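Before anything else, study the sequence and fold tokens given here and see whether the fold suits the sequence. Record follows:
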Amino acid sequence: MKLSPQVNAALAAASLLDGCLAATSGKFNILSMNVAGLPAIFNGNDVPGDKATNSASIGSKFAEYGLDVIHMQEDFNYHAHIYRTDTHPFRTATSGGVPFGSGLNTLSNFDWVDFRRVKWDTCSNASGADCLTPKGFTFMRVAIAGPTDNSTAVYVDFYNLHTDAGGEEQDLAARQHNVNQVTGYISQWSKGNAVVVHGDFNSRYSRTADTAIRAMLASENPEGPGMTDPWVELQRGGVVPTEEDVCGNPASGNACEVVDKVFYRSGPLVTLQAETFRYDGGRFLQADGNILSDHNPVFVDFGWSSGSSLRQSDFSGGAFGTWFSDVPTLAGIAKPKPAALAFRGGSRLDGVALTLGDGTILRHGGTSGTEVSLELGPAEYWVEAELCRGEKSGKTRNFYIHAATSLGRTLEAGTMTADCTTFSAPEGWQVVGFVGQDGDEIDQLAFVYAPQ
């Protein structure tokens, strides 16, 4: 008997609940779809039928197909019809219709710890009205797996975008700047993280002027963000096309090229591998066989596995401050082990730090509060931590930390609250670093583990 994706997901979740253990491998899928949600008076998108009705049909198909993370573009004035018929438990709030919103929204089976909307620095009206709405990109750190006790979790950074359209010189320049703006944020926010970017790039590799998408590829730009395009990987044997082969709608196969792209990369905490790529236009048709959007939806199946030398806990705190990560530093050290811990705190948790055995210092947060420290012995490991959070000035942040070693010694800083979580390193592992968001204090924090 073949089980539905929803039943398979429920069984997998039940097995995790039974053992209170985090999965170390699994699968998820993504879909990118421009839903043609501009008001009909502005753009009919060459799609027959009523846009409100078509949008409701799109939403019902999103719910039907068991899609895990859906990025939508042009989700403007018919947004409510999609959300009315969709059933995904996690969804972004609309930023508004034309001319107020970006048209970028996400539906997901997984929760996230941060969500941001960023407007493009550059736009062009040379070929249309790209500056009419605040187009740009969104960022979210999505939990694709997590246990019941929060001690370990698996996160992937997802970006959704809609770049400038058109082929005039100003359009090309704006589009290149758009893509470069995203890669700049990836280098800042997603250090050491696995990343998936999918959206409407308005770009084709076969257009010689669309060079920014080539620069995203690790095979084309070793100094870039290190991404792979699953269409190039799975459909073209790794060869980037130079001759144009434009898809029909719906596409008759997967060898042709559309402007909607998917890029991904692995990180030390999680390895990603694209397993299936297809254009999904054939599953998004009206009852009479007409298309629901002027874009072919793009579908990718991914497999994932946890890192063999580094993993992380879930997060505690609030999505404020600047993202930081010790993962890139730790990934370059063969067997990291803390030699000393140091925390700063008073009424709240101001800072965290540890010194590794090779002298590397990992420090985050501010300099206020009282510092306390603990030196660890050669055979002593940091194996458990407790974080307590609360609200300050309307923002959730960490107020307290308590660390326990394998020898039962402890270190604490800050002020306890009633909202506390304990994080335990997996058997045979230890806490060796941090991931989170900070400013003058520790707004959000997770722990990085490595084998003892």
Summary: Residues 99 and 203 are 24 Å apart (CA to CA). Residues 169-189 form the longest helix (21 residues).
